[in-house]
Specification:
The chain is mainly alpha-helical and 191 residues long. It has helices at 10-19, 23-41, 43-46, 51-54, 59-68, 70-87, 94-97, 99-112, 116-137, 153-184. It has one domain (10-184): Arp2/3 complex 21 kDa subunit ARPC3, CATH 1.10.1760. Helices cover 72% and strands 0% of the residues. It is globular and about 50 Å long.
């Protein structure tokens, strides 16, 4: 069955190729990914309307970093938080608990789990905890004013179902991305 099959070793291939790179290249790539994540996440403020469709892609740079190296992803994650603190403090609450957390979670899940269902479930739980933490602990209206910040099983279940579908989408995008890297063959993509 599709969800119970083990994923391929494309991520491990990318990690092995990435380890061959110099520290400077790793640092530059991590910095570049954090800048891209900050720009993409801030698109909602920079381009009202269409920017809200662009800002979810802030997960991608953190995800790419996490799939190459969890250490580099952690650096990019915290550097993105610092950039958002300086440039767009209004976006600071959302990134660490949603898009950034999902990127780190998917990358870590690929390193620790092999089955597609386990990876998707782990990421969905992580994203659900992040959204519910913003909504119920910090009372930040991450889902807009229509959703109450008092606990509701219906809202929590809806958040989990959304997180499950959203995580599945990102896991499939990540697998597609790393199959493309493996398909090109050499380590020249990394620098």
């Amino acid at each position: 069955m599709y969800f119970f099959k083990a994923i391929s070793d494309d991520v491990q291939f990318a990690q092995i190729e990435f380890r061959k790179q110099s520290r400077v290249k790793k640092l530059v790539l991590g910095s570049f990914l954090s800048c891209m994540a900050a720009i993409l996440h801030s698109a909602g403020d920079l381009l009202p309307g269409v920017g809200y469709f662009i800002s979810p892609f802030a997960t991608l740079p953190i995800l790419i970093g996490a799939m190459f190296s969890l250490q580099m992803a952690a650096m990019a994650y915290f550097l993105t938080i610092l950039l958002l603190l300086m440039l767009f403090p209004s976006e600071l609450f959302v990134f660490p608990f949603t898009t950034g957390l999902l990127g780190i979670g998917i990358g870590a899940a690929f390193s620790f789990f092999k089955k597609r269902l386990t990876i998707i479930s782990f990421c969905a739980i992580l994203l659900t905890i992040g959204i519910m933490g913003l909504l119920y602990v910090f009372h930040f209206p991450v889902l807009g004013p229509a959703v109450s910040d008092t606990f509701s099983f219906l809202t929590s279940g809806s958040i989990f179902l959304f997180a499950l579908l959203y995580s599945w989408l990102w896991v499939e995008l990540a697998l597609f991305f790393f199959k493309r890297i493996k398909g090109t063959g050499s380590s020249s993509q990394f620098g």
